[in-house]
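In the previous chapter we treated chains in isolation. Here, by contrast, the input contains two separate entities that must be folded as one system, with a combined length of 894 residues.
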Amino acid sequence: MTNPSVMDRIGPAWRAAAGTDMSRRRFIKLTGASGLAIGLVSAGAAGAATPKAGAAKLKPGQQPGAFVHIDPKGVVTIQINRLEFGQGSHTGLARILADELDADWNSVRAELAPAGEAYKDPAFGLQMTGGSNSIQNSFTQYRELGARARAMLIEAAARKWKVDAATVRTRAGQLIAADGRSAGYGEMSEAAMALPVPASVTLKKSSEFRLIGKPANRLDSADKSTGRQTFGIDMRRPGMKTVLIARPPHFGGTVAGFDAAQAQAVKGVDSAMQVELDRGATGVAVVADGFWPAHMGREKLKVQWKAPAELADSRKLDQQFGALRGRDGLPARAGDLSGMAGAKKTIKADFRFPFLAHAPMEPLNAVIEMSGTGDGRRCDIWTGTQFQTIDQVTVAKVLQLKPQQVNIHTMFAGGGFGRRATPTADYLADTARVMKAWLAAGRSEPLKVVWTREDDIRGGYYRPLTLHRAEIGLGDDGRIAAWKHTIVSPSILKGTPFEAFLVKDGVDATAVEGVADTAYDLPIAVSVHHPAVNVPMLWWRSVGHTHSAFVMETLIDRIAREAGRDPVALRRDLLKKHPRHLAALDLAVRKSGYGTKSLPAGRAWGTAVHESFRSVVAHVVELSIEDEAPKLHRVTSAIHCNLAVNPRSVEAQIEGAVLMAIGTTIDGSEITLRDGVVEQSNFDSYAMPRMPDMPPVDVHIVPSGDPPTGVGEPGLPPLAPAMANAIFAITGKPVEALPIRL
Amino acid sequence: MANFKVNGRSVKADVDDSTPLLWVLRDSLNLTGTKYGCGVAQCGACTVHLDGQPVRSCVTPVADVEGASVVTIEQIGSGRIGQAVQKAWVEKDVPQCGYCQSGQVMSAVALLRDNATPGDADIDEAMEGNICRCGTYGRIRAAIKAAAANLN
């Protein structure tokens, strides 16, 4: 009953391309239009996880030694194969492994793993954090790792005590024999790690879980509340210089000439050099002792830029996209539209969603350091990234190294929301290009390349500008007779290594998800246009669902009004075959008081439910209009994500997704271009939601014991349409664009 | 060149007078708990206390802190209010990515120093300048109230 995330299509295709056995030495080349090559190398070569003797049959991601370390004092350190950038997988994955290990949670630490074969997503064959997949795809993997380590500890104790392993029990980091003898895990750790890894293990029954399913605070809360947590931008290496890059004002622009005399006169500035940049652009890197001299030096640079041939302009794009939606595009879903001719009523609606920047609080940055000579040459990079495998291969290509010579140290990141998962590895490729120029200049000190906030807001990789048109015919009885749907959205994947997996018959699955695979039982036909635009575009927390859920969920309310139906009742009718949708919807509705509680004058209810990343979220909002703007008074949410590994973390993700979705509704939450130049530059022109914008959010979780599904993104899509539906209930005027302007 | 105190220690910053305090803390003194988020006093990630008052260190030229006393996130927990706020932050499991939280904590301590029992409107006003992209505002609100209750 579940729509697989379009991201899930990567897995099987990638594995097929890489060979089914990822532990075997393979090298594959996937050439996209950009010419980017992706290699998969042998487990040993990648450096991080050398299989132990006696465990040759295990795949890299099954090696306990690469994931869990127990020191003689019993401290358990777990390697996390994902980026931690707020979503809580650092704590969640540690708890999954610790539960099967039967560890004492107070003795558990977690670290972010570097780039390495062992740490690739077991379903995707890529080391990455995205698609709300961290817990989904590594749940069984981390359980099996914990269970294997526990079995080895038991075996070590049994051998020492000369008893049958079947008689040794464990409890919270202790091994206990039938005769009462006991030992801490630490005492047995060295003996255990010398034993062969069992090829198979029996996992706990869910009734035996001690940690999984129980709410827990984050492992990193204290460090993040006291300033002790180190992020990528805090990294420092001996002799390191700081680099700011003067980038062209237009995407793909180049340096026609530059004068660095005044820049180099700034105290602390080392040098300025022309560098190659992402998308064929060039720029000028200012190298200095620290951020401020680099910044002042960049201000004093005089650069003549050469603009590219194509300059994107929002007004022209709106016209171009608007004209396109009047025509049929590439078919994304076939549907029987014969009912349109006899329709008694029609709804015709046009929607617009702007470019959006991710704007993670920590601006992009990376530290790069070169060492060694000949075959021992090595590049170390410290950065917060969602895409280690892509980054490693891309950086290696720039520096003419083998991927295994590039060591990526995964740093905690101050947000990302997709921006740190670029198929071009843009900010790391640029970092490597700066190092290449630095080396060519005869220098070798480590460099920290930092983006300013202005660089970030103007730097592209936006959620695409997207338009929709829907024409819906209703029958006499209010029944939906036909639904013709056209989407205009540039493809984010064309020209990337993912094109082969996610673009089928010209249709980019990330542009139509949430409409073409709607759970509603509808006679709907969907087509899509993917105009080419000279703006770098990318997935943005919940990807295509950022717009598709808004369109579908507001249209359902409009249909309900035309048909004289209650919008919740209409949803229930159209979702009869989808028990998870119904469970989430019913839970949110019941907890909110919708239909039973009466609201103060001026307030209205708004409801929306949407599936993404295999989970279903329903929001019921209470909203009024104050000072010509929507004011949220309460959000009641319900999520069906199957087993909630850490319910407290699930609640946090829904709260966060609600806030980020509110951000898409507020005035000023929009990136626009004029003659190729981005018009916004910082938080004074690209609006962020703030404390007064946050309503009380009550999160409820549908109980389930099934394997976990996504949590980081699914809370976002249904929030803005729930707000729009409440506004529609108050004003009678449908909301057809984000941000919301009344 | 500027002479001032950071977390009780006398420091001498041999940098251009225009250098914002933020970059002296981060690059010269290696006190990286204070964060860069925008550089234009729009996000609050760089909030420190200057003679007890919260300021945005990203727009405070180091020349302006001559002779002053600066307290950063690294030291704020040694005071009674700072300790209560940080304890509440952990108990309410406030942080997500955590990048903005140093600034949030510094703003919250300043609020509680002036107002022992802040209401929702007080919290909105005091915290509006601190952006959190992850959406921890609800938990921040709850943590400030919990800290206030513990202190009273």
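The mean pLDDT of chain B is 97. Chain B has six helices and five strands. Compare these points with the single-chain example from earlier in the chapter.
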